[in-house]
């Protein structure tokens, strides 16, 4: 399953000390993944569009804000 480089939407706030949640389109549907910021102190709010930078199976991703 390829998720690195995919864009998704934040559904659970991402930030220091938090495990956030993002929704990504995979395998013909949309699935939830646990998310951490690639920049350690960055906060990413619910509704933000992100891009997956790293993927650790089965359900953990490191993300960055998508460029507008």
Strand content: over 45%
Helix/strand order: EEEEE
Secondary-structure content class: mainly beta
The name CATH uses for the topology is OB fold (Dihydrolipoamide Acetyltransferase, E2P)
What's the pLDDT, averaged over the residues? 96
Describe how the helices and strands are arranged.
Layout: E1 7-12, E2 20-26, E3 29-37, E4 49-56, E5 60-65
Parallel strand pairs: 3-5
Antiparallel strand pairs: 1-2, 1-4, 2-3, 4-5
Concise summary:
The protein is mainly beta and 68 residues long. Helix content is 0%, strand content 53%.
Protein architecture, described:
With 68 residues, the chain is mostly beta strands. The chain has a single domain, classed as Nucleic acid-binding proteins (OB fold (Dihydrolipoamide Acetyltransferase, E2P), Beta Barrel). Helix content is 0%, strand content 53%. The chain has strands at residues 7-12, 20-26, 29-37, 49-56, 60-65. It has a 5-stranded mixed β-barrel. The chain starts with 6 loop residues before the first strand and ends with a strand. The model has no long low-confidence stretch (mean pLDDT 96).
Which terms summarize this structure?
68 residues, mainly beta, OB fold (Dihydrolipoamide Acetyltransferase, E2P), 5-stranded mixed β-barrel
């Amino acid at each position: 399953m390829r998720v690195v480089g995919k864009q998704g939407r934040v559904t659970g706030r991402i930030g220091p000390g938090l495990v956030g949640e993002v929704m990504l389109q995979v395998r013909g549907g949309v699935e939830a993944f646990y998310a951490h910021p690639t920049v350690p102190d960055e906060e990413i709010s619910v509704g933000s569009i992100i891009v997956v930078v790293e993927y650790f199976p089965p359900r953990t991703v490191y993300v960055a804000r998508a460029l507008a």
